[in-house]
Amino acid sequence: MARISSIIGVSILLFILYIAYTGAITPMDLILGAIASVIIASFTADLVVEKAGKLVNIKRWCYTIAYAILYLTVIEAKAHWDVVKRILHPKVPVNPSIVRIPYEVESDYAKTTIANSITNTPGTVVVDVDDKRKVFYVHWIDAKVVEDEKARKEVSFTFEKYAKKIFD
């Protein structure tokens, strides 16, 4: 039953991604997309899904959707605007630093989500992860603070909050 749940969940995710990226909504495209999604999910579900029960948890899906909307609209827009202002400013005000940012999540999926969110946000990039100390080392274009917890609050707090609710 867990394997079937995994295949169904991964199939749905793949199908949504297929529709979102291709924009194809003709009946033939939808049928081929659904078939391809099920075939790919059959081979990859065990690799992608750690605990099948998490896939059918509606609360996790709601957090995922809320996070995607927040990240893709508000967080990304603010970060892009900040970098654009720095580029266009005559003196290019930057204060680069590599800061240590602790995390409290457990699953690899949650850590990866946080690291990807940091890296995909303009002005920050994860350069190393120390699993033993549970910290990310992040290059930050304008390090407002360098203390671990303060940097965490500035850079990754929101990412971690959602990653924990979605994956842990």
Kindly summarize this structure in a few lines.
The chain is mainly α and 168 residues long.
Instruction: Classify the secondary structure makeup into a structural class.
Output: mainly alpha
Stretches where pLDDT is under 50 for at least 5 consecutive residues are none
Per DSSP, the total helix count is: 6
Q: How many domains?
A: 2
- Report how far the terminal alpha carbons are from each other: 22 Å
User: What is the alpha-carbon Rg in Å?
Assistant: 19 Å
Strand order of the largest sheet: 1-3-2
The counted number of beta strands is 3
Name the beta content range.
Answer: 5-15%
List SSEs in N-to-C order. Answer: HHHEHEEHH
Mean pLDDT: 90
The helix content is: 55-70%
Shape: globular
Task: Give a quick account of the main beta sheet: strands, pairing sense, barrel closure.
Answer: 3 strands, antiparallel
Describe it.
The protein has 168 residues and is mostly helical. It has two domains: 2-56, no CATH class; 58-167, no CATH class. 63% of the residues lie in helices and 11% in strands. A three-stranded antiparallel beta sheet has the order 1-3-2. A hairpin with a 4-residue loop joins strand 2 (124-130) and strand 3 (135-140). Helix 3 (58-88) packs antiparallel against helix 6 (157-167). The longest helix has 31 residues, at 58-88. The radius of gyration is 19 Å and the shape is globular. 23% of the residues are buried. The model has no long low-confidence stretch (mean pLDDT 90).
